[in-house]
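Two proteins follow. First one:
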Amino acid sequence: MFRYAPAQGDRAGWNKLAHECAQGAIFNSAERLPHSRCLPNTREGLLKDLKSLILDQRRKIVWLSGDSGSGKSTVAHTFAEELQRKDKLVATFFFSRKHTKRSTFNHFLLTIAYQLGLHHPRALEVIMKAISDDPALLSSQKSRNDQFEKLFIAPLQHLAMIWRGKIGMSLIVDALDEGTTSGTSHIEPFISILARLIRDETIPIHNIIISGRPWPQIQTVMLADHLADIMNVLRLDDYDSRQDVEHYMRHGFGRIYDAHDLSFLYPKPWPSFNDFTMLSERANGRFIFAATILRLVDRDQPHDHLALVCSMIRGSVEHAWGNIDFLYASIINSIDPSARSIGLRYLSLIVHLAEPLSLSDLHRFFGVNIYPHLLPFSALISIPSLSSSEVVQIYHSSLRDYLQKETNRVDVRSTQLHRPLATQSFRTMARLLKRDICGLGDPSLLHHEITDFAQKRDRGIPGALRYSCLHWLYHLQQADLDMTIRAQLLDFLEKRILYAIEVYGILGELVTGVNILRDARKLVATWSKDSFSGKDLALALLYDSWRLTLDFFDAINTSALHVYESALPTSPAMSQIRFTYAHVLAEATVFVFEEGLDEQWDCALRVVQLENVNDISAVSPDGSQAVIEVRDFLKVLDTATGCVIASLPTDNLDWPFRIHHNGSLVAITSPMPQTRVVHLWHPASGGMSSLALPPATSVVRGSAFSRDGHRLAIACFQSSSSLFGSVSSAISSNTTIEVYSTHSFQQISSF
């Protein structure tokens, strides 16, 4: 019985957790419809081995390893349903490159915590208290270690008593490879966190089932020696799936036969024995091959489409059976050449988007109705109705891989595809951005004081504009640049950057906006003046926009119209943004300062009110993070929001200590002669490593990171003394620089 009734504030925290987590990553979510399940009497050998491992009382990780289209997700979903029926399912997370929240590891811990809270009121109570004590736990900027300890470990420890005696409690993580859109470097820390769960006997999770492609980056982590005692690998290729695929195809064709009422025209067996045998042989045990064929046939006039598929495949017998690339090529080559070229162009652009868009948003983004151009490719991509808000997306990630190979084959680099996407982002913003885009009207009202704020926001900022504002820099960074696209950037900065800042504030993406402005300035700084005559003006506007947003972050974040009413009017008298947007300044409705303004921005990038701060120890090179000492903790702050994103107790550190921060690693050293230990703290993962320097008479005086963070230089001061009568005095001294690898801790050099 559900005994815990959260207080109103706690309920708000729970509601926010439900919103922030990736609901679509839960195995039975509506976002994953239609759910793919193993048909009866298929995958019997694999499921039997998987069940045996789960019932084994050893604590373990099980890696379901298989190539694209081998049916890993179907097996994972089927097993999740079975575990749920037996009350042995702890939680699930199904990654997907097609959905933003499911394409990285950022929302994993929040999503698992949400599911833990649904298991028992005691777990919910623990989670709610943690959020109430520290609301920043729900921020994507928060330390993963803090989230892990407070939202994951703590509720699980309370569930341990409730689940005592249960064997086989399992966590399922599907499509690990699809969670790497922000980079494969996150795989190792992610698996390390899961390994900690298995090795901790107080945690009531006995099995973690992970499916993923056997990428080299994944294999290196999964097959590492230090995981050998807990890692069990089930390779889908070791199981003969040819009969399973044949059964799947018979079932699929039978459904098509009945749904289209073909019995009046074509007697059974349908397809014919020869056609079905040929298709089964070509599929060669690959589910994605069979699924693509069924999808192509399951349209109007299915018999004609079946004949087309069979004739295409029979026409190229020299290709390897079961090659999904050949099937994709066959389907694409069957499209009329006049429609194929432009449709394939839009399809290639769509798969390079940072996130999928609906048809209406694609229409706004590209400025043309691409629906008829995509229709011939409906066997390869999901195309919702024109009135639907559902996104256009490929059926399977292997199509993205195929298209990438094809563009490389014809010497079309992905950078050439990002250039038109950057161009369309600027064009979309040029068409749609304007002042007070949502009609909020009164700048004195905070967003939460406007009763229909959400409706106005959604009406005023369509998906295409939201996408363009959030991702123009993403495409610009990866594009082949020319004079035209640089001119578009300058035009955007001179005419619309304030409107974009307003949109960031309305969307609740002001932190993202700050990072975009900062990183865009870094990018433009690398361009030569020969290639971009407007470089100095662009750099000045980017800097002023960044400073304006930082200085008025809280005001704009809670009432976006303050970008015009307070931020711009009080900007420095000699700032470029004040000159460029003088016409906007003249329209200010609250007040305009004529005198008393500073000429330039002051040295303080951001003012954050804090209590009990002992010292400001270090700032990252880009100014986005600061390390401070607060009471008995080192804390990393996001300088834009003021949020604490990581913390480290200092009770085990030798005091006094010095701090150096390179943006991702924090080095902690002590100048005391008896201490020759350097601590390396990784705030994002919470990991801590220590480097014990060889004993010596030298004293550590300082340290510094290399630009890439891969090396750490340590300055050691050494002195010798001589006794003259009763006076001891130093007669020589020297400083040694010791360089170490931050990965292996091996000394590289010294001088």
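Second one, unrelated to the first:
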Amino acid sequence: MAGFVYRGLNAEGATVEGRITAADETDALRQLESQSIAPFRLTLETPASRKFARKKARPADRHRFIRQLAVLLRAGAPLLDAFETVSSEEPCRDLALEADGVRRDLRAGSRLSVAMKTHMDVLPDYAPRLIELGEATGQVPKALSDIATQMEHELKSAAEIRNALAYPAFLAVAGGVAVVFMFLFIVPRFAALIGDDRTALPALSRIVIGLGVTMRENLPVTLVILLAIVGGIVFLLRSRKSRAAVGRALYGLPVVGSFLRSAEIARWARTCATALSGGAPLLEALILAEGSLQSPRRRQGLAEARRAIRAGEAIDVALRAHTDFDAMTINLVRTGRASASLDEMLAFLADLHEEEARNRAKRLTALAEPMAVLFIASVVGLVVVSLVLAMTSLYDVAL
């Protein structure tokens, strides 16, 4: 089935336009005729000719796309029909263009795993391999469903991290705006009252007033610097490499690091469990799971553990020797290995660490809020104290 965009006259002679789904152009004309519409333009809809709700595809859009595709395949729809149905209704331009490329490769006889790896390279690293395993075992719908479930867990984990840091970040931004406002508008007013002779002022007052006057007198330069700082922060948040670098730096912080550690172990366990349940061998599942980690130290430790497993060590022994996983994690992995249910035990382990990450996020938020308020209050208070000292010192001089 394909989409066709039409423009024509209805039975009342009014101009109408719209979109219909048909097997070919003849079928589209037949449908329009049954609706008493005389088309004077009928074109095959392509991603380039469609109107989209937005251009960029978000991770949530890719998750929705994979989930819908899995549902259609589980319902018995042929692969090409299911893919065309989902892609023809896709509201994101980038994702629609990628889907159109996959659809062309499928029509040419390519396998789904190869086509998606070629055109949808933004998908997680484990997605093409799980689809390939599903093709080998005849379980493509299950593979897509497992991928969608894993992506859903990753989206929830990312949302928890954002929510934990959102309010402290808001307080920091609001505090920064308040401080800049004081330096640009309030401090220069005090400077005008004091005059140019500031030799009698305390050192703190001279520094604060001098900084405020400099910022006010060089307002264009100040605005450029502030815009550059804001632009740099936005760039860091938008760049995947920069976000990864910031994430690695946060691992060293006491409270934040423990929260990120729990979230990362949960992500590793979930990815490994998904790969094992999809039919991947243990070593390959470990390789796929390593790609979900951001901490270089933990990734290196898991790589060393994987080499030890290849040399014949048990997975729990290798993890204990080469990683910083806690005793509960190691014991659950050993239990899963001994009972030949490692994938189920890893999924259970992921649930435990996700719950632990949620609890740590609540504690982090509860701790970060007063710390952010205290920091902002300290900066504002420092400015106020410096101005008060300036006024009292002038009063003493006058006496």
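SUMMARY FIELD: The longest helix spans residues 342-398. Strands lie at 2-9, 15-22, 38-44.
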